[in-house]
Structure formats: C-alpha cells, structure tokens
Design a protein that fits this description.
Strand content: over 45%
Radius of gyration: 18 Å
Helix content: 10-25%
Strand order of the largest sheet: 1-2-3-4-5-6-7-8
Distance between the termini: 52 Å
Shape: globular
Largest sheet: 8 strands, antiparallel, barrel
CATH class: Mainly Beta
CATH superfamily: Quinohemoprotein amine dehydrogenase alpha subunit, domain 2
C-alpha cells in the first residue's frame, strides 16, 4: 500500500513539473502578433497587431489596427498565467469617448486565440493571432 501511494505521489509531482515546463514564459511572448478580430454587431473583421516586449523583466507593448483607430495604443493590466494572456487597451471611441478593450487569450506556441470585450459598448468578440516570424 505504501508503494502505491508513493508511486502516485511521484507521478502527480512529475505531471505538475511537466505542465510548468510547457507554460508560456514572458520571453516566449516577445514579438509581433497579428490576426483578425471580430466584434458582435459591427462590420467585418479588423486586423489587430500586438507588439510585445520585455521591459525590466515584465511584458509591455502596444496595439495597432488596420483602420488607425488604435495607433500604437499602449496595453496595460498584462497578466500571463498558465498559458493565458490577459491585457487591456484603452482607445478613443466614437465622439472621442474612452473605451477599453479587454482581451483574454489562450496561448499555444506561436498562436493565440480568445475573447475580447468592450464593456462600454456591451460588446463581445473574438481574436485569433499568430506570431510573425
């Protein structure tokens, strides 16, 4: 009985260690990410370009879109945890009103896919991006 408990304990520990080895690290995220975003109730897709860099060991960056609504808008509230990247972007909306885009992206290698939300509009959508080589 003791051998079985030790075996399962070691197996669980090895599984946790292997999962942490494959989790994205901030340095893995550095680069340019590009892809199409769709927002419910709006026109066609919008190409978003996210540029990530490391500043003092932490992720930082900015976002631009194909229409120029976001011209290197800085991102904030950046959290990378267990393969999920969360961040926000503040942009000027219609009439100059400030709007916040909230992203929750699942990262897998050089691809990310997830949800975006614009609370001020009550709108939700999706974004799928790939890291440019």
């Amino acid at each position: 009985m003791k051998f079985g408990a030790k075996f399962f304990g070691m197996a669980a520990l090895m599984l946790l260690a292997s999962v942490s080895l494959f989790a994205q690290k901030p340095a893995d995220m550095v680069g340019t990410w590009s892809g199409l975003a769709t927002l419910e109730g709006t026109g066609g897709p919008n190409e978003l370009i996210l540029v990530l860099e490391l500043k003092e060991g932490k992720l930082a960056g900015h976002m631009t879109d194909q229409y120029g609504t976001m011209n290197q808008a800085p991102i904030s509230e950046i959290i990378l945890d267990q393969g999920t990247l969360n961040f926000t972007v503040s942009v000027a909306g219609p009439g100059g009103a400030q709007m916040t885009l909230k992203f929750k992206m699942k990262v897998s290698g050089d691809a990310m896919k997830g949800e975006l939300e614009v609370p001020e509009m009550g709108a939700k959508g999706t974004w799928e991006a790939a890291k440019k080589k």
